[in-house]
Amino acid sequence: MKPPANKFFPAILGVIALAYFFPQWGSSQSNLPLDLLGSIGISLIFFFYGLKLSPDKIRNGLKNWRLHLLVQSSTFLLFPIIVLSFLPLVKEGASNMYWLSFLFLAAVPSTVSSSVVMVSMARGNVPAAIFNASISGLLGIVITPLWMGLFLTKTDTEFELGTIYLKLLTEILLPVLIGLALQKYLGAFAVKNSRYLSYFDKSVILLIVFKSFAASFYDQVFAALKVSQLLIVAAATLLLFFTVYFFIGWISKKLLLNREDQITAQFCGTKKSLVHGTVFSKILFSASFPMGIILLPLMLFHAFQILLISIFAARLVEEQTKIEKEKTAD
What we know:
Helix 11 (227-254) packs across helix 14 (291-329). This protein has one domain (13-23, 40-324): Up-down Bundle (Na+/H+ antiporter like fold), CATH 1.20.1530. The chain is globular. By secondary structure, it is mainly alpha-helical. It has helices spanning 8-21, 34-52, 55-62, 65-84, 94-107, 113-121, 126-149, 161-181, 183-192, 194-218, 227-254, 259-269, 274-284, 291-329. 77% of the residues lie in helices and 0% in strands. The protein contains 14 helices and no strands.
């Protein structure tokens, strides 16, 4: 039997298609509380993770400094350095704006919920994934504006640190801590129903993907773009993803990381947060910037990373299952 992750790929395509035909459902004028449902879903995901996690494993995971350093360096150094290497080729005008949008993509922190969900699906190091995804959001508050500040003039808006900190604490860290506190009472229930909780995790991710794309289709983000321009941006986005993904895999082997840590490094180190990016874009860019262009690479990357990582996760599970069967047969 193939793992459930195989069904995740067509499900994502399905919700994107649904968002295209019903963009009004994800608009700011919609009466559907999709943002609230997404926030509640994310909190529940991490609450259930807290129920299933062993405190001993978390403490041991936090000691894995090589893995943490690799993930954070990939997120905040490797991505921007790759984009910066193309700066000499950039001319004034439209090409500069596209390059700036890719730098913004490279500078934002890693996504949280999907990183942990995908690592869990692939049987990676979940405690380390939670740690790296959470710390990435905090580091991004400082590092993302620093990167963009090198190429942007000062704006007349202030950076709302409190909102981002509050969201991170209430939706992620607090639910995990509550789950850990209740693990003694509900831990066995969570482990027993891991399969159903996995379906719940994927459903929340699908909801977030739908909301993101529906809002973009409703605002006609892609209306001003030619098909050729969109294809070039999409190809460059894919190239950036695969470059980072395989480079992290190569470095992981050089560092002699085990299978679980390598999965976590590649899955967390290649992710970029559309949620953080949307918030930062409103703060870092003035109204004169074409926000559709600024957010386009990040939106495409957000979709590609979920689609591709879900495929990789399914293959890793299949490979591991095959190895386990061979060992059992021997």
